[in-house]
Specification:
- It comes from Blastococcus brunescens.
- Residues 176-275 form the Alcohol dehydrogenase-like C-terminal domain.
- Residues 267-286 are annotated as: Disordered.
- The protein folds into 2 domains: 2-146, Alpha-Beta Complex (Quinone Oxidoreductase, Chain A, domain 1), CATH 3.90.180.10; 162-263, Rossmann fold (3-Layer(aba) Sandwich), CATH 3.40.50.
- The longest helix is centred in the middle third of the chain and has 13 residues, at 148-160.
- The chain is an alpha/beta fold.
- It is built from 9 helices and 15 strands.
- Bound molecules: zinc ion (2 copies).
- Residues 88-89, 91-92, 94-95, 103-105 line the site of one zinc ion.
């Protein structure tokens, strides 16, 4: 079968490899959709500390069950399924508290396990153990199901920063994740949502799709000033940086309102992983 394999930064190859075999405690999927995400780009450019090469990449996977191991119950050939990307251990302190997203022994599809840029994928036993193979409802396509992973990340982020009724929400980054955040913020009751990017074409394409209340082009205006202007000098209640740009994190801090919440959703780029800034307002007293 054909696969996309990571060997080293800037060395990713399309190769022919034998079709994987399904063990008694595993499930074999025919991959119907595997989406690319910003993390894939980072892996191609910089590698990743948890990847042992050569490794088949791809962690946003949806497919069709073609084989079920003898010891696995609940799945049948023909079932449509989505695979979790980050795999918790199910046993550590965090997992037992129900905080599986911050499991200390987390492994990932496409990192420690072979990924979904392949014709077939073996769902690891660790995924089945933590109930991480999800049935796809009939009204959801394989393409939509494969982005359940980034969508879930966005839902988690907005829960953590409590996006709620009446909030003014700023989203940095007019990519697919930024678009998800805009729609989600609205669903969570945000009264106004602003979208920021530095690429006019990308801004327009995304704005046409998700209709933010305000589109701010950071290549043309000072985004902090503009957000303060749009909020009568108060700043944004919520800022989400859905881009791997340090400057967005700094601007986020400077444009956040008192009691504002910020989600540094997209990590900083590997070569320059730090950012620093102080809010535009200051507190007095202690
Ligand atoms: Zn991803
Ligand atoms: Zn754990």
């Amino acid at each position: 079968m054909k696969v996309l394999r990571f060997y080293a930064p800037k060395d990713v190859r399309i190769e022919e490899v034998p079709e994987p075999e399904c063990g008694p405690d595993e499930v074999k999927l025919r991959v119907r959709n595997c989406s690319t995400c910003g993390t894939d780009v980072k892996i191609v450019n910089n590698g990743h500390q948890n990847i042992t090469p050569p490794r088949i990449m791809g962690h946003e996977v949806a497919g069709e069950v073609v084989e079920v191991g003898a010891d696995v119950s609940g799945w049948s050939v023909g079932d449509r399924a989505q695979v979790i990307a980050a795999v918790p251990c199910g046993e550590c302190y965090e997992c037992r508290r129900g905080w599986m997203a911050v499991c200390q022994n987390q492994t990932s599809v496409g990192y420690q396990y072979e990924g979904g840029f392949a014709e077939y994928l073996i769902v690891p036993r660790q995924v089945l153990k933590v109930d991480g193979l999800n049935r796809i409802p009939d009204n959801i396509g394989f393409d939509e199901a494969s982005v359940a992973e980034p969508f879930a990340c966005a839902i988690n982020a907005q829960e953590l920063i409590s996006v709620a009724d009446g909030d003014t929400v700023v989203v940095f980054g007019a990519g697919p994740i930024g678009c998800i955040h805009i729609r989600l913020a609205r669903a969570n009751g945000a009264s106004r949502v602003f979208l920021i990017d530095v690429n006019a074409e990308r801004l327009k394409m995304s704005a046409d799709a998700v209709r933010p209340d305000e589109v701010i082009n950071g290549a043309e205006v000072d985004v902090v000033e503009r957000v303060l202007e749009l909020t009568d000098g108060r700043g944004a209640d919520v800022v989400i940086t859905a881009t791997a740009a340090n400057v967005a994190q700094e601007q986020a801090i400077r444009m956040a309102a008192r009691r504002g919440r910020i989600s540094f959703f997209g990590g900083c780029p590997r070569p320059t992983p730090t950012s620093s800034a102080t809010p535009t307002w200051s507190t007095t007293g202690s």
